[in-house]
Every structure is written in C-alpha cells, then in structure tokens.
C-alpha cells in the first residue's frame, strides 16, 4: 500500500514539473507559402509570398467547385535576400511554412544581374523546408498580379499553369517549364545558353459570362550566356525550338504555314540527332529529326506523301528561323555548342574565347527532317 502511495506521489510530481511541448506546431495555425516572387529596386531586394488557406482548397465530398479561393500576398524588403524574407515574418501573424512552395517567379529587372538569381536560389535552397523541385519563371508582369492570378472556373492558384502545367502541356507542347535546379545547372555550364521560360497574363482570351478573366500564358523565354542575360525571345521566335525537345508530347502546325493552309497537322514523338564536321578549323552542324504525325484538319485533299513533305518543310524553316533569332541576341537556342562541348570538349575549348558563342550564321550546315503520317483521324484521307 505504501509503495502504491509513493508511486502515485512520484507520478504527480513528474506531471507537475514536466515541460510543455514548446516546439509543437498547430498545422491549422500556419501560413503555407505556395509561390514566391523576387524583385529588385532602388538597391533593395523585394520579396513577395503567396499564401493560401488550404481548408478552402481541399476537395472533399462537400467541397464547392468554383468557389473563389483568396490568395494572401505578403511583401518584404531588404538589402539581402535573407533580410527581405525575414521582414515578412514581422507582420505574418502566423508561423510561415515553406515546404509547399511550387514556383518562383522573378522579375525582368531582377534577371539583369545573374548574381542576384544565384544568390536568391542559394539562400532558398539552404533552407531545409524548401524543396529542390520548384518551377522557375521570369516575367515582365507586376509580381502582385502574377501571385494573385486564379485558374479557370475560379479554381485555386495551385491549379494554374504556373504550378501545374503537365495537363495543358500534354495537349499543346511548346516551351517546357523547367525546375530551378536545372536552370542553375545551365548557368554553371560554360557551353550552355540557359533557358528561363517567361510567364505572362493573357487578359483577353477568356471571360466569365461577359467579364474578362485573365489567364496565365508562357509567352517566350529569357536566355543567358556566360551567366549574363542576353535577351528575350517570344513564343513565335521559338517555334523551331520545340521540335528539339525530346519531352514534346503534342504540337500542331499548319501546312503550309501561311494564311491559307491546306491542312492542320499534329506532331508527336520527336527523335533528334546532332552531328558535326570540322572544316578549316570550324565546326559545322547537321540536325537529323524524325517525327510522327496525324491530321487534325483537312482543308484541301492532300496525299500522304504531300502531308509528310509539307510538314517536314515547315519544321525545317521554323528551326532555321529560331536559330537565327537566337544568334540575334547571342543565344545558342538549339544548343549546338553544348553538343560539341559534350562530344569534343578539347575542340570546344580551342574555339571558345571570352565567353563568346562558338556558332555563327553558317554553322548550321544542314537539317534533315522526316515526318511519318500515322493516320488521318476518323475521316479517311487520300493515302496514295
């Protein structure tokens, strides 16, 4: 009996003097950052964070599809990236959690100094909560507009192109969004023209009843060479670039590519090979590309051979035009220099001087494109 009393007293003593769980966190009382905006003005880093209330986003049996999901946007400033982020804590009211960040959007003026980009990315990746697989974009738009953008049907910002691009890309492949760690790796490669997709807001294409509703669009890409921003190319300028992306799933063209096409063709499964020869100490490149295709619309009857030949011709012209557009801003869009760097680093090193491109207008010697028509859709077409 006495042992029981002693045990009970000891237990009560321990309960009274046990410390509380001071480090525990109530998950419903945290601010979850889902996207970050980076800007630079007047000698200061300006940081924006997008915070969502996940209870409004969860899709349960009682969830209301189309209900407006507000996005809270915080702003911080500082002479360093760290200081700008820390200034957000002073007014956040709740503990901020960074483990759900899915995208980082960087202003054009921020991009003009590549050291800022590397500094910001270094700081973010040093913090243990931030993941590595974060999509990175540049933009000409105000960052508040970007971070407050909603999706179609009033779905949350997590259902926009900025965060979830895969479903849209499967229907229209063009400029592939890229994870930040891949872009930083390109920055550190001397032979690579790093490519950063640019995010814009299309304010005219969609409306809710008669009210215009803006939607995201990837409208081009920024290019860097020797770790310096060289320029920006539009989606139109980059039409030829898409055919060299092995992850391209589906992309359409008109044949011929003019105001009066004979047909619309969808191209899939690109298979590309590069080759080079050295003449008079200079490399000359050839591209060999094979693709599958099917007819999406037939305006005028064409034979199978005509469809394949006209498609190949459109692709070839687009690749040449994109190559020349890249040279106009000192960017190796087709990554011919990178190919030589991998295949023959000694030759590349002998040609590389002071960060200049090793390619010239005549470096692209030939392009061989072969398109194979798979089918003409549900309607039978001429296959003679």
TrEMBL record:
Keywords: Germination, Lipoprotein, Membrane, Palmitate, Signal. Residues 23-200 form the Spore germination protein N-terminal domain. Transmembrane segments: none annotated. Gene3D superfamilies: Nutrient germinant receptor protein C, domain 3. InterPro entries: GerAC_N, Spore_GerAC-like, Spore_GerAC-like_C, Spore_GerAC_C_sf. Residues 220-377 form the Spore germination GerAC-like C-terminal domain. It is found in: Membrane. It holds the Pfam family Spore_GerAC. Belongs to the GerABKC lipoprotein family. This is Ger(X)C family spore germination protein. The lineage of its organism: Bacteria, Bacillati, Bacillota, Bacilli, Bacillales.
């Amino acid at each position: 009996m006495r042992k029981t009393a002693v045990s009970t007293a000891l237990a009560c003593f321990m309960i009274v003097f046990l410390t509380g769980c001071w480090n525990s966190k109530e998950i419903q009382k945290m601010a979850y950052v889902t996207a970050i905006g980076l800007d630079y003005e007047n000698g200061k880093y300006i940081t924006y964070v997008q915070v969502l209330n996940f209870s409004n986003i969860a899709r349960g049996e009682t969830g209301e599809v189309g209900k407006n999901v507000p996005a809270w946007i915080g702003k911080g400033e500082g002479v360093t990236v760290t200081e700008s982020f820390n200034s957000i804590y002073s007014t956040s009211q709740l503990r901020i959690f960074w483990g759900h960040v899915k995208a980082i959007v960087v202003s054009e003026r921020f991009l003009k100094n590549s050291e800022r980009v590397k500094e910001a990315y270094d700081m973010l990746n040093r913090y243990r909560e931030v993941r590595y697989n974060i999509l990175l974009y540049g933009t000409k738009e105000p960052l508040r507009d970007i971070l407050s953008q909603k999706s179609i049907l009033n779905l949350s910002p997590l259902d926009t192109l900025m965060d979830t691009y895969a479903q849209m890309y499967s229907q229209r492949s063009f400029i592939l969004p890229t994870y930040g760690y891949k872009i930083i790796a390109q920055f550190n490669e001397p032979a690579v023209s790093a490519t950063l997709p640019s995010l814009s807001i299309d304010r005219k294409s969609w409306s809710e009843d008669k009210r215009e509703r803006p939607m995201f669009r990837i409208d081009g890409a920024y290019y860097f060479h020797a770790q310096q921003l060289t320029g920006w190319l539009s989606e139109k300028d980059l039409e030829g670039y898409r055919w060299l992306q092995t992850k391209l799933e589906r992309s359409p063209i008109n044949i011929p590519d003019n105001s009066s096409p004979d047909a619309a063709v969808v191209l899939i499964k690109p298979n590309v090979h590069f080759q080079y020869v050295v003449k008079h100490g200079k490399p000359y490149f050839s591209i060999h590309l094979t693709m599958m295709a099917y007819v999406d619309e037939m305006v005028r009857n064409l034979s199978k051979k005509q469809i394949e030949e006209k498609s190949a011709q459109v692709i070839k012209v687009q690749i040449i035009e994109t190559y020349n557009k890249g040279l106009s801003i000192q960017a190796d869009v087709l990554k011919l220099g990178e190919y030589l760097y991998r295949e023959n680093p000694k030759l590349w090193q002998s040609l590389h001087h002071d960060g200049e491109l090793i390619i010239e207008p005549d470096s692209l010697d030939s392009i061989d494109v072969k398109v194979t028509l798979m089918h003409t859709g549900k309607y039978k077409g001429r296959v003679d």
